[in-house]
Fold this protein.
Amino acid sequence: MTAKERLLHDIETFDIEMFYCPLKNNSAISAADGYIGLNPALRAEPTVLTTVLCHEMGHFHAGAFYYGYSPFELRSQAEYRADKACTLRYVPYDEMIDLMRQGIETRCELAEAFGVTEELIEKSYNYYKDVELTLEQISGLKTMLDYYRYLTY
């Protein structure tokens, strides 16, 4: 299942209303009461739009919202929690490893398989590498690190 398929399901499940609005400094904003405002420039880039929506839905999955006047620490915590939820939901570890074992060898190919940007693949990889790995997953780590070395050169 691609990130976009999961995303469409989640938007319907959470009953999210999306709309385009002019935004100066952000690609999107989300509100806890079920709204996501999107920068109109995202219309031109479907993969970027999917990735931005995955992140915004991460706010809903994690319950990680803040206000414009919130302190920097609160905003960065909420963004981290949204990124983590985005990774866990839309770029699952097991699916990433399965794709690598099937011969998907570049960030570009992984991004295409998930339907997201290479930046989200990189962020997801780093999350799994640094935080999420358990002893049962160590056998997959060597393969993943080998691929990562290939991906970064």
Remarks:
- Residues 3-151 form one domain.
- The mean pLDDT is 87.
- Helices lie at 3-13, 46-62, 72-90, 93-101, 107-114, 118-132, 138-151.
